[in-house]
Amino acid sequence: MAKTGIRQLADHLGISIGTVSRALNDRPDVNPETRKRVLAAATDFGYVPNQSGRSLRQGTTNTIGFIVESGTDGSGSNDNFFLEVFGAIQHVFARHNLDLVVLPCSTDEDPLHHLQRMVSRRIVDALIISATRRKDPRISFLADAHIPFITLGRSSTPGPHPWLDLDFEGVANTAMDRLVAKGHRRIALGLPSNDINLGFLLLDGYKAGLERQEIAFDPALVLRAASSEQGGYQLAHEVLSMGNRPTAVLLVHELMAIGLYRRMNDAGLEPGKDLSVIGFRESPLSRFLIPALTCFKLSLRDLGQALGESLLATIPAYAEHYPQGTVRRVWPMELVPGDSDGPPRM
Amino acid sequence: MAKTGIRQLADHLGISIGTVSRALNDRPDVNPETRKRVLAAATDFGYVPNQSGRSLRQGTTNTIGFIVESGTDGSGSNDNFFLEVFGAIQHVFARHNLDLVVLPCSTDEDPLHHLQRMVSRRIVDALIISATRRKDPRISFLADAHIPFITLGRSSTPGPHPWLDLDFEGVANTAMDRLVAKGHRRIALGLPSNDINLGFLLLDGYKAGLERQEIAFDPALVLRAASSEQGGYQLAHEVLSMGNRPTAVLLVHELMAIGLYRRMNDAGLEPGKDLSVIGFRESPLSRFLIPALTCFKLSLRDLGQALGESLLATIPAYAEHYPQGTVRRVWPMELVPGDSDGPPRM
User: Fold this and answer.
1) Measured between CB atoms, which of A53, A62, A261 is closest to B56?
2) Given A80, A107, A145, which is nearest B76 (Cβ)?
3) Are the Cβ atoms of A90 and B78 closer than 8 angstroms?
4) Which of B50, B69, B301 is facing A122, going by the closest CB pair?
């Protein structure tokens, strides 16, 4: 029965070809029971619609790609973040019979080269790209290729595309105000070790916070480390070795807090008392750490939904459902006070 | 120049069409400098090979899918695990101009339904599926559909497919021997709350370990919780509330240790002294936790490489390079002693 067609399925089930087609295509206007029967029959009869053929005829694949970084370097990039965002995007895409595929770019490979290959494979209709760099050639490549895309992250590379990005400047400003109000004056900043754009934004916010508080900027307090437990351990080591030691530190990634806590413990010091720490994003981790990490929260579900909808808003076939135009939005984050950032020791 | 073809590119560069084609297809037999020139020219001239057309002609997409679970339930599935495995698989696939795409299955959706849709989209030539269940209908579906696949995880659903799986029984046996040797007799087991197959394997190993040590199995010591920080917190709460409290616990996921440590700290108790803990997989986390978590390590790079190669070994076009046949292999894990599992308090 390998050659079972949609007509045979419809005959077998005693329903119209149109209903079978709508059920197979996950359209919303099909009774759930009918859909179940159609899918069961399609499986039993070995019916598989030819997506490659469809794709040539319609010029679409009905899949949208999300490019993330993979790798074997143990850099600790936090993909629990991504899995939750994926779930929310899929929820949006499911309304339109679209599927999300994730395209991991190995850290061994040039991100532009990877993107070009993915585009040449024609497996997706549109793209979400993340981990934007200060200058990001992927943006102009996609714009030139007329492929709809949205970036999770800003860049100084101009382009007509929509983007969403977390409010790194706001986080740094709020953290600086909070630490200064508690009496801190020497505040270190832990930045990523690569040229990802968010590092520049965090530094901007940090400088703005210092200026508002009339504290001179000291480049020696800007440290760089991997966004991982190991990076946090090394950063703490560096802080503890400094002559005029800072009394507080703002970290670009919450995973770093685990290593920092460990290094302080090894030195017989207490986070939140001997060195105040503010992490970045609230995660289950931050809440269960001892002491609980002061950090910033956002709804990953809302962010994922906005990413999905903002992308569809720029694709003609879906724009009527999403009249928001070209979204360019800084996503706010809310302070979650913990026990990791007390006043400096006298 | 939107209609630039491969001939125009070859003319422009003054090289043969064959070389251009090999460069564009990432074949190994092209000088790296030439490849760079070809790719640059292809980008400049807006050349995009029509993958959909190729796919119809050759019957292949040159992409292989890896199905993982996504979701917005914060269940803490640990995908740092996956990103490292992906990197290693990509390394294998790159030898053959194959790309890895990740197909996240939302926790809202039935995994079989998701798989059927992915297959019907024809975006991949072969599949890697993970999080296998005790009975897993995806296995018979893929076998019936004649799609090459490998599972990361065993199942009681039979099938002719290759699989790799971590040595859950071995981990449980080693942990039990170690804890009993330290004087523990009442040892709890923290299992996942769903019907993922690894929970059954871990329970088998736990029971075998008890039997060898001539300790009676007590079902009250088998606890179930989410594989997350929150799950570990709840599990610790349950353990601390027990009348005849166990003196040690083996956890199915290392993330649970964070919540367990927190709950013990809240109760004024010390992990490793008041309750001994052995985690599952060694990760940067385990090393930096205080106290360091006793756990088990494996090379994710080696595991990913074996997954990729074992899959290709079952695909006719690649089998000559991988003569290992149908691989069905339990992957060993090695004890990493930490400070979290001292002897019981007298």
Assistant:
1) A53
2) A80
3) no
4) B50
CA-based nearest residue to A179, from A253, A281, A275, A291: A275
Task: Could you list the beta-strand ranges (E) of chain B.
Answer: 63-70, 99-106, 126-130, 149-152, 163-166, 187-191, 222-224, 248-251, 276-281, 294-297, 328-331, 334-336
ipTM of this complex > 0.85? no
End-to-end CA distance of chain B: 82
Residue A194 counted as domain residue:
yes
Which chain B residue lies closest to A2 (C-alpha atoms)?
A: B145
**Contact predicate B267/B336, CB 8 Å:** no
Which secondary structure element, helix H or strand E, spans residue B111, and what is its range? Answer: helix B111-121
Helix (H) or strand (E) holding B133: none
The answer to whether residues A182 and A238 belong to one domain is: yes
Total structural domains in chain A?
A: 3
Q: Are the C-beta atoms of residues A251 and A257 closer than 8 Å to each other?
A: yes
Of A63, A70, A258, the CB nearest to B288: A258
In this complex, how many residue pairs, one in chain A and one in chain B, have their CB atoms less than 8 Å apart?
A: 214
Exposure string for A198-235, b = 16+ CB within 10 A, e = fewer: bbbbbbebbbebbeeeeeeeeeebbbbbbbbbbbbbbb
Whichever domain contains B45, its CATH number is 1.10.260.40
Could you tell me if residue A342 is inside a domain? no
Closest chain A residue by Cα to residue B87: A71
**Are B308 and B281 within one domain?**
no
Residues of A in contact with B86 (CB under 8 A): 70, 104, 106
Among A21, A24, A27, A51, the strongest candidate for a mutation testing the B interface, having the largest count of B CBs within 10 A, is A51
pLDDT tens per residue across span B269-321: 999 999 999 999 998 888 899 999 999 999 999 999 999 999 999 999 999 99
Q: Are B195 and B133 in contact (CB under 8 A)?
A: yes
Q: Chain A residues with CB inside 8 Å of B51's CB?
A: 120-123
Query: What whole-number distance in Å separates Cα of residue B27 and Cα of residue B31?
Result: 10
Looking up tokens 């499911």 gives A94
Structure tokens at A50: 């030819």
Task: Give contacts of A91 with chain B, Cβ < 8 Å.
Answer: 72, 106, 108
Could B106 and A91 be called an inter-chain contact, meaning their C-beta atoms sit closer than 8 Å? yes
pLDDT of residue B46: 58
CB contact under 8 A, B101 and A87: no
B37 lies in which domain range? 6-49
pLDDT tens string B112-137: 999 999 998 888 999 999 999 999 99
Give the one of A100, A102, A258 whose C-beta lies nearest to B285's C-beta.
A258
Q: Which of B121, B127, B283 to mutate to test the interface with A (most CBs of A within 10 A)?
A: B121
Q: Chain A partners of B83 at a C-beta cutoff of 8 Å?
A: 68-71, 77, 79, 104
Q: Which residues of B touch A232 (CB under 8 A)?
A: 288
Is residue A186 domain-shared with residue A274, that is, in the same domain? yes
Do A161 and A183 lie in one domain? The reply is no
* CA closest to B122 among chain A residues: A51
> Over its length of 346 residues, how does chain B's per-residue pLDDT go in tens digits?
334 567 778 888 888 888 887 777 666 678 878 888 887 777 666 565 544 444 433 457 899 999 998 764 444 445 578 888 999 999 999 999 999 999 999 888 999 999 999 998 888 999 999 999 999 999 999 999 999 999 999 999 998 899 999 999 999 999 999 999 999 999 999 999 888 999 999 999 999 999 999 999 999 999 999 988 999 999 999 999 999 999 999 999 998 999 999 999 999 999 999 999 999 999 888 889 999 999 999 999 999 999 999 999 999 999 999 999 999 999 999 999 999 999 998 7
